[in-house]
Design brief:
Blueprint lengths: L1 H8 L4 E4 L5 E4 L9 H26 L2 H6 L1 H28 L6 H5 L2 H6 L9 H49 L8
Antiparallel strand pairs: 1-2
Amino acid sequence: MTVHKFLTTKSVFRDVTTPDGTVTNRNPWFKDSKTWPTYMYFAVAAISTILNFSVLVGYLRGNIKSANKSAYISATFTWIVMLGNLIVWIVAAALYRAEKATDDLWGWACSEGAKRIQKEFADQIDFNQSCNVQSGSWYIGVAQVIVAAVTVFTYYLVLRRKGTKKKLNKRMSQMQGQYPTNY
């Protein structure tokens, strides 16, 4: 929504009265807006969605035999995807938040300057709604980081448990017959 609103309204100019009484012809955005944080965050979300969708399609189209044959490759790929997802979302959320200032789309939409010119651009953009959407996007990104971290940690615990069970079964099979079982 933010990228679309920016692209459709950046060339809309209106006369705006400044606090000192002068009239300025301007668009609704900060002059020379810093757009890369918004584009980067949008790209990360879009790529993440496409990758997750492709995994779903792969599971729906694949069969169990071929999945079992490629368990090692799948496990390695899963680790790479999970760790990559975690790292990418940490970096994206951190950069998106760190770059929030009055000269980027999120910071500007939430600024006092945007509130002052809202009346002139009310038919084009609702800055309060744009601020809420971008703030919500950031919180969703933070939630994505938390979920990815919990997933990686859970997967680590599962693999650790599997290894422990394997060692225990090996020891139990080595001890078989050493102790009487009929008391």
